[in-house]
Amino acid sequence: MIILKFIAAFGRYLDLMGKTFSLPERMRMFWRQYTKEMAQLGVDSIGIVLLISFFIGAVICIQIKVNIASSWMPAFTTGYTTREIMLLEFSSSIMCLILAGKVGSNVASEIGTMRVTQQIDALEIMGVNSASYLILPKILGLMTMIPFLVIFSIAAGLGGAYATTFAGIITMDELNIGFHYDFKQWFIWASIIKSVCYAFIISSVSCYHGYYVEGGSFDVGKASTNAVVSSSMLILFADIFLTPLLA
Q1: pLDDT digit string, tens, across residues 161-172
Q2: Taking the model in full, what pTM does it have?
């Protein structure tokens, strides 16, 4: 029974994506919506990305220095490990999990509200492809902004690690050596590629849950919760496959 429900939901998801990725009927309206979604989904998320990344970078550096580093390990181990964690996992996977809660719930509730108030039905009656008009700008907007959020997250995380030097936990030289030791530029690109895939998952899955809401305001809240849970699970599932492919 669960498998049949999953197959049915996956089929509706593919059908929705087929309607979404079609040529916009009015390019001027599409570009207006596209820039609006970039600001709403991307620019408005910069603050929380910087704040969380800064403190997580500082906490990772402190934990490694206090609990892992020893006289048997090189002095640059703390900086090196902090950099690798931020590049390989936190600034892509973990940050997108956080954005799934902020962006995913927002998108699902917005489209779900339009569904229960019959605004989507009105668009369909007027002959507008509601899926393309509402969903495509959100998907492309988040996928466009996510690389910048990743870069900001990495920079803020490393900045948080540098902030620990003022508390005397680690020296600036030790961090600098660790940050530069065996640096691979590909790790940044891998993090960006992973985040773009996750951005598609967050936006498309959230739009799917909101688009097919049935009922009233209670169902909109339920769809918003389901969107966050589904997006988070799919991000973790995709991370298992993307990590070895991009390693």
Answers
A1: 999 998 888 888
A2: 0.92
